[in-house]
């Protein structure tokens, strides 16, 4: 707040230009001259500052365009190809997919039957396909058990997306609980936590040569 | 004038403190010196007095406040006695210096937090573009999920699990009795230190990790039992090093 | 599409600068040099073009800022008061949460036990998960000490939010380190208890070249 200029000092035109630049950049909608004037310190002339800004951005990768009565910053139309066909919508991963992914990350390598056992419901083909397509999981070794079922493991792309260095770094149940991610209701009949979920590798290494 | 009042306020506002170190840090300000030159002896006395006052006012203090009081009482006595070079806890001066270090570090982190929060912040002091255009892979829908989503999903699943009827799957459980029997039978032929993993039964060493874990756990429990009975010795060279077993000579 | 340059012509540097400008302007997230290079025509050098662009925007209402290994356009911090109505009111962080955040930032990678040792109290539930939810922290590598505890580190989103180029630029970091206040100093007499040996001392590593 202390940066706000005094009531009577009109900022120099170059400063007004900076202000308009920041406003146009940050605004989600085009701004009319009136809207700009309302935000600028008293005595500012957005029309003049805007004219300066338009000249500054002429021929740049970003340009000042007029939208009806208002003004906005847009990428230069001739550079559209840089962004072209890259406009995508972001969608939240479905709950089924998130859960399936979590189970694979924590229990890998894991078969579809095991995923279903943990989730308590059937895993639709589409869910696994979606995760495969996103390249967050891949097919691992076949399990040496009857039917030789396929197993799933998570990929580098998964680690990359979720900012993990390895799947072993995922917090275990006690750590999830300590972080507040798990309700602390004690399971009926048992007093202990099943903690080894996340780190299958952990303790067994104790005994290896 | 304001001094006794301040001390009282300290006692009454016990809920406002975040643990004993926080109390000590607040008390240390009354000494009006650099934390590096603080008198820990005086601080210990102030803290003990604080605890006494809380007791007198019948204010329930959490256990960690009392643990700190006990420790400071001990430290105080050590500081007043002539030094004992044999003491396994280290010299009283070292203990006092460590406490001063903890206070200084906490104070430093508080100041760091304040400086951090006072920085210009995105969405408050500086802004990203108001109408961003997505840049990502061509023509696909980008699915978004964060690590937080993932952890929550797993936590949710596992919590639900807790409420499922308990069903014990014995297929992949190696009983301790079997491990004991196997270990007793094999111990005689074991000349010297042998890795515990060697005692795992056939068919339990590879394959499903849960199966192997069960065998390892049961065999380990069995070694503990036999060690207790004086039949074998256990050895581990280092943290996470392999456990080794030999018959007791 | 028709505007796309020929396969073999490397655009002049000024044109590359325009392209980078457009990309940074369009992108919602900071872009690394690699991400820029992947989008630019072959043979382009985003580093050089970026240097030009940074100079061009120096002192403007919108500036090129570094966020970890990536770059973004942001409004100049001194003009924040103009964007009042755009302020995103964030949930106020508790004292415990801000302290925990600072400890993670200055001591990273750091375990929960270490945070508790520094603050002298248990980390309450809801603190770590709030910071995770804000995506200001993530889990790092597990510590190779008994129990293999999870560690926490700060994220690029943290740097972006606080306008930091890297974790090295945390205010007062060098002074704190010089004063020994970021050392993992075990209490006397317990010597062997605390053999966290081999796990480096986090932030201080940043300075050993």
Please name the defining characteristics of this protein.
heterotrimer; A: 209 residues; three-stranded antiparallel sheet; disordered C terminus; B: 249 residues; mainly alpha; 8 helices; 4 strands
Structural summary, described in words:
- The complex is a heterotrimer, with two copies of chain A (209 residues) and one copy of chain B (249 residues).
- Chain A has nine helices and seven strands; from the N terminus they run αβααββαβαβααββαα.
- Chain A is an alpha+beta fold.
- In chain A, the strands form two sheets. Chain A has a three-stranded antiparallel β-sheet.
- In chain A, a hairpin with a 2-residue loop joins β2 (62-67) and β3 (70-75).
- Chain B is mainly α and 249 residues long.
- Chain B has helices at 2-12, 20-29, 40-56, 63-80, 92-117, 147-162, 176-187, 209-228; strands at 142-144, 194-195, 232-236, 243-247.
- In chain B, 52% of the residues lie in helices and 6% in strands.
- Chain B contains eight helices and four strands.
- The relative contact order of chain B is 0.06.
- The chains are: A alpha+beta (209), B mainly alpha (249).
- Chains in contact: A-B, A-C, B-C.
- The interface between A and B is large, with 66 and 53 residues.
- β4 (90-92) of chain A pairs parallel with β1 of chain B.
């Amino acid at each position: 707040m202390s940066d706000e200029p005094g009531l009577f000092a009109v900022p120099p035109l170059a400063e007004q230009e900076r202000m308009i630049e920041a406003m146009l950049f940050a605004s989600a909608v085009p701004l009319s001259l009136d809207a700009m004037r309302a935000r600028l310190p008293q005595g500012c002339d957005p029309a003049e500052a805007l004219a300066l800004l338009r000249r500054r951005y002429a021929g740049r990768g970003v340009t000042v365009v007029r939208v009806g009565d208002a003004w906005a910053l847009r990428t230069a139309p001739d550079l559209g190809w840089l962004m072209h066909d890259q406009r995508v919508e972001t969608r939240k991963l479905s709950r089924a997919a998130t859960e399936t992914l979590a189970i694979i990350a924590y229990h890998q390598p894991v078969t579809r039957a095991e995923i279903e056992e943990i989730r308590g419901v059937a895993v639709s083909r589409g869910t696994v396909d979606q995760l495969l397509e996103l390249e967050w999981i891949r097919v691992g070794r076949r399990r040496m058990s009857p039917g030789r079922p396929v197993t799933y493991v998570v990929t580098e792309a998964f680690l990359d997306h979720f900012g993990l260095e390895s799947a072993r770094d995922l917090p275990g149940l006690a750590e999830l609980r300590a972080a507040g991610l798990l309700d602390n209701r004690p399971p009926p009949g048992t007093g202990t936590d099943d903690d080894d979920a996340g780190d299958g590798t952990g303790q067994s290494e104790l005994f290896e040569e | 004038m304001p001094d006794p009042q301040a001390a009282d306020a300290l006692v009454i506002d016990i809920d406002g403190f975040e643990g004993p170190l926080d109390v000590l840090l607040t008390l240390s300000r009354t000494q009006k010196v650099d934390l590096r030159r603080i008198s820990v002896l005086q601080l210990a006395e102030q803290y003990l007095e604080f605890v006494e006052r809380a007791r007198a006012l019948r204010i329930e203090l959490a256990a960690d406040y009392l643990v700190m009081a006990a420790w400071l009482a001990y430290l105080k006595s050590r500081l007043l006695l002539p030094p004992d070079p044999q003491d396994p806890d280290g010299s009283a001066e070292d203990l006092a210096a460590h406490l001063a270090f903890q206070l200084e570090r906490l104070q430093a982190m508080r100041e760091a937090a304040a400086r951090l929060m006072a920085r210009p912040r995105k969405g408050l002091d500086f802004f990203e573009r108001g109408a961003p255009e997505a840049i990502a892979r061509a023509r696909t829908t980008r699915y978004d999920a964060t690590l937080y989503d993932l952890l929550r999903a797993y936590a949710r699943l596992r919590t639900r699990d807790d409420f499922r009827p308990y069903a014990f799957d014995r297929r992949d459980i190696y009983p301790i009795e079997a491990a004991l029997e196997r270990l007793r039978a094999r111990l005689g032929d074991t000349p010297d230190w042998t890795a515990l993993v060697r005692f795992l039964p056939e068919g339990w060493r590879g394959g499903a990790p849960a199966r192997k874990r069960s065998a390892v756990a049961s065999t380990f429990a069995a070694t503990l039992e036999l060690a207790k009975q004086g039949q074998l010795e256990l050895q581990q060279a280092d943290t996470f090093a392999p456990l080794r077993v030999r018959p007791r000579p």
